[in-house]
Structures are given as structure tokens and as C-alpha cells.
């Protein structure tokens, strides 16, 4: 269920921007591809947010979900690795809209160290620990090569970072309970899409085969 909370927040943000003041569970469900029952069940896990016969106040529900997600907690983030993927995320992802302040990026390439990407300063990875000692950081984002993933993750954790956003396609692990790793595997998403396409193609193929008999 927690995986759907960001979807609720994003959808409510879009509704708010469109000027929608209130919405029913049925309408919210239709806009998200969920049932009204699923919407009510999900939200009930965190409290009573709507009113029967009235629905949900969009701004109030968005604020409640924002609190649950910790968007206003002042989280901070650093990026390790400013290759194509790291640079693209720095330049295009709206960190502030998701409750994070991007403080800095780190790399080893002389071509980027000492420069700025979308206003974000890039330091050499040798400066990582001194920087973290002076700037409390909630999350370290890894877009480094696979060979450096675990080492850089270990350095972040040893320096006090407790959240790892891992884009390396390598399953990094830590032998401690106070560290959270969120791994993003693009291949998983693509294979899931492949499965869904295949499932939709099968009935069409069956109809074609039946028509040729």
C-alpha cells in the first residue's frame, strides 16, 4: 500500500493545480485506475480523511499524505556519479517538489569536478566524508558504475547517511537495520511492460488462429 501513497500525492497535486476542490473515492479511483473500495481501504490505514456523501477535500488530503510521506521534514540529498544518468536526473528531476534539497554531487572526473550541474556544485569523491561531516544528509543517490556501488554505499552509511537511492543495477546490502535502500531497476520496469504487452497480444493471436482454422 505504501507504494501507492506517492501516486495519491501526485494525482492530488495535479487535481489541485486543475482547481479541483473535492473529489469522491470513485472519481479518484477512476483517475488512477483503482477501485473506490481500494482507495477507501488504503486511506483508512492512516485515518479518517473523507466524509460520506461529500468525498475528500483535495488540499486537505494532499497535506495529510504529505505528512505521512515526510515531505516537509527537510530531507537533504547528495548524488554520487554525474555520468549521463546522474546528470540527467540532476537536471530534470524536481527534488524540491518531493521534499528534498539537493546539496551537492560527487565524481572523480576532472572534467566535471569543480563545475556546477543545474546549479549543483560537483566535488571530488575524496571530499565526500568531510562534506557529510559538515552537512547532514538524509539520502545518497548512487549513479556510479556497478563496480563502485557497494564501496560508495558503504562510505555513505559510515558517514551517517541512512537512505540510499540506488540506480546502479547492483543489489547493495548493509548489515544493519537503520539503513533503507530503495533500488531502481529499469530492466524490471521494462520486463513488466513486456509481460503486460504479451498478455494483451495473446487474445489477438488466438483470434487470428481461430479465424484461419
Short key terms for the protein model shown above:
alpha/beta; Rossmann fold; Arc Repressor Mutant, subunit A; 46% helix; 8 helices; 213 residues
Layout of secondary structure:
Layout lengths: L4 H13 L4 E2 L1 H8 L3 H9 L11 E2 H12 L5 E6 L3 H9 L7 E8 L8 E2 L2 E5 L3 H7 L4 E4 L3 H13 L4 E4 L13 E4 L2 H27 L1
Parallel strand pairs: 3-4, 3-7, 4-6, 7-8, 8-9
Antiparallel strand pairs: 1-2, 5-6
Question: Can you summarize this structure?
Answer:
With about 210 residues, this protein is α/β, with parallel strands linked by helices. The chain has helices at about 5-15, 25-30, 35-45, 60-70, 85-90, 130-135, 145-160, 185-210, and strands at about 20-25, 55, 75-80, 100-105, 115, 120-125, 140, 165, 180-185.
Characterization of this structure:
With 213 residues, the protein is of the alpha/beta class. The chain folds into 2 domains: 2-69, Winged helix-like DNA-binding domain superfamily/Winged helix DNA-binding domain (Arc Repressor Mutant, subunit A); 75-187, NAD(P)-binding Rossmann-like Domain (Rossmann fold), CATH 3.40.50.720. The protein is built from 8 helices and 9 strands. It has helices at residues 5-17, 25-32, 36-44, 58-69, 84-92, 128-134, 146-158, 186-212; strands spanning 22-23, 56-57, 75-80, 100-107, 116-117, 120-124, 139-142, 163-166, 180-183. It has a 7-stranded mixed beta sheet. Strands 1-2 form a two-stranded antiparallel sheet. Helix 1 runs antiparallel to helix 4 (58-69) and helix 2 crosses helix 3.
Amino acid at each position: 500500500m505504501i507504494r501507492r501513497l506517492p501516486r495519491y500525492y501526485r494525482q492530488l497535486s495535479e487535481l489541485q493545480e486543475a482547481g479541483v476542490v473535492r473529489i469522491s473515492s470513485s472519481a479518484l479511483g477512476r483517475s488512477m485506475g483503482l477501485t473506490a473500495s481500494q482507495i477507501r481501504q488504503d486511506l483508512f490505514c492512516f485515518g479518517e480523511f473523507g466524509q460520506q456523501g461529500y468525498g475528500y477535500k483535495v488540499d486537505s488530503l494532499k497535506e495529510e499524505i504529505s505528512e505521512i510521506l515526510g515531505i516537509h521534514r527537510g530531507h537533504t540529498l547528495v548524488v554520487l556519479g554525474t555520468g549521463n544518468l546522474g546528470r540527467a536526473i540532476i537536471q530534470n528531476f524536481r527534488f524540491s517538489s518531493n521534499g528534498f534539497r539537493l546539496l551537492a554531487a560527487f565524481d572523480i572526473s576532472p572534467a566535471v569536478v569543480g563545475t556546477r550541474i543545474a546549479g549543483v556544485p560537483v566535488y571530488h569523491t575524496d571530499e565526500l566524508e568531510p562534506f557529510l561531516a559538515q552537512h547532514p544528509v538524509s539520502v545518497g543517490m548512487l549513479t556510479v558504475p556497478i563496480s563502485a556501488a557497494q564501496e560508495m554505499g558503504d562510505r555513505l552509511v559510515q558517514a551517517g547517511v541512512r537512505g540510499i537511492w540506488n540506480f546502479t543495477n547492483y543489489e547493495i546490502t548493509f548489515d544493519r537495520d537503520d539503513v533503507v535502500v530503495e533500488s531502481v531497476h529499469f530492466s524490471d520496469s521494462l520486463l513488466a511492460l513486456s509481460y503486460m504487452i504479451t498478455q494483451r497480444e495473446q487474445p489477438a493471436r488466438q483470434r487470428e488462429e481461430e479465424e484461419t482454422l
